[in-house]
Amino acid sequence: MTITDRQQLAYIAGQAADARLNLELETEGMVLNIGPQHPATHGTLRVIVRLDGEQVVAAEPVMGYMHRGYEKLTEVRTYPQVTTLINRIDWLGSFANEVPFILAAEKLMEVEAPPRAQWIRTILFELSRIANITLFLGDMAAQLGALTPVFYAFRDREYILNQIEAVTGGRFHPNFDRIGGLKDDLPKGWGEETKGALRKLSEFCDIMENLVLGNEIFAARTRGIGVIPADVAQAYGLSGANLRASGVDFDLRRDNPVGLVYDKVDWKVWTHPDGDSFARYWVRLQETREAIAIVEKLLDGIPAGPVMAKVPRIIKVPAGEAWVETENPLGAMGYYIVSKGDLTPFRVKIRSASFNNVAVAPWVLRGVYVPDVITILASLYFILGDIDR
Amino acid sequence: MILGVELAYWQVTILKIVLGMTAVLLPAGTLVYAYLFKAVSFMQSRLGPMEAGPYGSMQLLAEVGKFLQKEDIVPTKADRLLFKLAPYVVLVSTFLLVLVVPFSVDDTFLNLDTGIYFAMAVSSVSVIGILMAGWASANKYSLMGGIRAAGQLIAYELPMILAIVGVVIQAGTLNMNGIVSAQWHGEIFGWGGIGNPYILTQFVGFFIFLIAVQAELTQTPFDMPIAESELVAGYLTEYSGLRFLLFFIGEFATMGIFSLIASVLFLGGWTIPWFFDFDSNAYNVIGPLVMMGKMMIVAFLVVWARFSFPRFREDQLQRLAWKFLIPISLINIAATAVLKVVF
Fold first, then answer.
1. In this complex, do A374 and B229 lie within 8 Å of one another by their Cβ atoms?
2. For chain B, domain boundaries
3. Residue A11 has pLDDT above 70, yes or no
4. Pick the CATH number of A60-387 from 3.30.565.10, 1.10.645.10, 3.60.15.10, 3.40.50.1000
5. Are A369 and B315 a contacting pair at CB < 8 A?
């Protein structure tokens, strides 16, 4: 069955449900407006849900309440200024937003960062992934009503943010990546400190596995709920852990490691065949552990050398077009830069992961109960800035 | 005649009103500060309130002051009378519930022969208040919360009552003081050292009772009606200021009173073994203290579960009540009845 068939069937089923309601019981469905001001949408996502009792007949996400016009704003900023701006797209894993843009600009300028800069970039990239997903691991439980894990998540994320701050000077918005390398080298003794922080995060993962994943109520609320089959996931352009939880073995870190050194260490891409909310949580938990292992291995092998290649003081990117995509904490994120040889980009197209991840919501939310709407949206894990840009 | 002093009827009435207020508000305040503010904070690796008074001990006053200052908002489309009345109906249920709780032989508000039956009956009154709140708010979230609450509270009344039936069979009385007396005078295989607190024989009933209490109080594994991450705040969504405070007091006072009832039914009530005789007058003074201590123990279990578990879905919650708790409690009743005849 193709997607169009599925969608059509869904539409027909929705219409039929409405008609049946009106004729047999002389009742009508209720339209419930979840958001934009709602505790579960952590930001301003609005989901219009048509209900039959507590069952969802149709759901429609409404995006754009937080649209900040980044694609347009980049056109009036020089290339070094753009990184300050695009830090704010996925605000929980800021450094990861800078990398694909810088890589695309480097591709146009035909410069390559020195090996040391590439290693440090990869380490910071993975640290921002850990910082980002840590919060998901706690927040998902909070959405299900368990308030305690989210406090552990905030507590332990701080260890990683401290390490990011020690290098870049910024907890949330490092603005550290430069065309041709990095702003600074690592501070002395940073590697050992980071390993200590990673051990803390490793403990945190174990706690979450026992406290959340091992909980019977959590399993009852998430197993078999919000199942996204592999073909649907691919058709809607899902990426990141959401795609891998549907059993698709796709990870840009392994499949297309542009400018980052993932191919230098051994690691594993985790997938789960189920495609339900539980699988999405499980995959993210395993990925956090894997990221911890990657950083530990990378820390041992940082090559010596400069962290900045030779680039002109005033950066003018030659005319041309470039597309670079990386595996960000939320999924595949890419920048398409069109340059006319000026100080500023002519046009930048941002492909952010959450926009596509939320696009599957109408498909997956059909027929579930209202409480499941929350767990499914939480397990899809979107950041509002990443949806609306 | 109270503590040997002859009092007029009106004096007794005033005394009972004051003590009744104390019996409702003191457990509520203690539980909120000691558990909701502090114990939970330590579980969540934070400090909790620290600024108002030493270790935040005056935080409760600050919170009450805050709620009293807030504007009393009634939504335009709300059913004004029902909306304003609902918190009082919930609170009435709480105050009626405390009437039958014995704090010692003499420290009772009402020594009814059908005490526990009365308690179960009046605890259902709060459902009406919650339905009123949910319906009158003119808010879809409130309506869903109210209806969920009604379904849940009715579903969990039954296991609660069935859990109590085991105790009643064993004690042979519905009177609360009679149940305490039966536990004190009971024997464990002929050894009467600590009496026979029914948690030993009715442990199944105790756990079912605790689960049902958790559901009656809409605490977390069963907090579908409130469900702050999906229904905003359920039937409380539109309430502010004093009326919200009344709901809040109602919730925690009921938690305290249900814990008191649990300690009467299962933990030997206001008695402590070895120190005093059952008829000792000392219990008139230390009985309330013993009850407070036992209440704190039971309430801690409730709060502990509340902050450790995620919540059930509505259908899972109903399934748990009808398919597991009720059959288990029926088996418990049958076993109790058989064993009562055997021994």
1. yes
2. 71-342
3. no
4. 1.10.645.10
5. yes
